[in-house]
Give the backbone structure.
Amino acid sequence: MPGSTPPLRSSPTAERVQLTGTALALIQLGAVFFGLGVLGRIAGKVGLSPIPLYLLGGLVFGTGGLIQLHEVEDFIHLASEIGVVLLLLLLGLEYTAGELVTGMRKSWTAGLLDLVLNATPGVIVALMLGLGPTGAIAMAGVTYISSSGIVAKVLNDLGRLGNRETPTILSILVFEDLAMAIYLPVLTAVLAGVGFMAGLTTVGIALVAVTVVLVVALRYGKYVSAIVASEDREIFLLKLLGSALLVAGVASAVQVSAAVGAFLLGIAISDSTAHDATKILEPLRDLFAAMFFVLFGLSTDPRTIPPVLGWAVLLAVVTTATKIATGWWAAQRAGASQLGRARAGAALVARGEFSIVIAGLAVAAGAVPDEFAALATTYVLLMAIIGPIAARIVEPVMRATVSRKQTLRVDSVAE
């Protein structure tokens, strides 16, 4: 038409720039995925969790690292959020409401001891480093909660799932997971800087939500399962992932925490549906959770680690001792042998995915100093390595100790 403006067309140069940007993003993302696969394989070969290596990968490619991944930062950020949701969803799928209630009844004393002994060192060190009350609350969660994923894998790898002390270990982990369902909304409220009454309301909503979900899961779990279940794997996956993201989004909107929303949804899905959901979601969880660990590494400047390294080592030593003490005491009450008590304590040492979830929330909110990310990263790196090693060496060490004592007794009698 006369007088009309011709449509704008991209110049060849602009198209080349756009194509170059897309190509660079694909190259960077492909390199990240492939690199994580290599790191995971290395971790498997040496019998460790891949989490420390994923964090190291993030440190290499993040702020202050060797190379920065500018083209894929937005994707990694979104993928990491999905990773947190899937981590907590699959954690919820591991339990039925009945198991949670039974676990709470059996383990509440050991759970409280575990909470006090392992959260306190994190609070003290955070305050001594000047991280403030917010940093102290966040660090308490980082040092408190064991990695249920690493613990379960180590127990399975060592063939200890049928041991007498294993129910004690699992009951403490159940307590920790339920405690986190209350702790995360508290942390979210603190990070958001809401007032006392608003924070109290958030905690109240979380408590009501946990109670309602447990009641629904106990009485009507089969109906919840029926809603998401499907014989078609594609439809099943879409319904599972869609419902998890929807529930997580709604939970986040009312400041209860997206992670808690996903955890509660997992509890509500029961029986064979939960088993099938676990199998179909595990590969996605591993992929997106790896992105989360990378993102946390990306957000940590390696140059901030040396000043807090000594504190991280101190925390690692203290909380290794307190976890072993917790497991030993709980297993002793359950009638386990000395070897069983030692195995129970050593199994609880590992920290990993959920410590990083807590630290990641604090860092993303911008409510903690840079030193916090460095301290949390270094601490989790140490504990994710120490945990599996402690679980593996405790039995030969204990057997050697017993043998030495028997030899000394024989020698003393001979004299």
Q: What stands out?
A: The chain has 15 helices and no strands. Residues 50 and 150 are 10 Å apart (CA to CA).
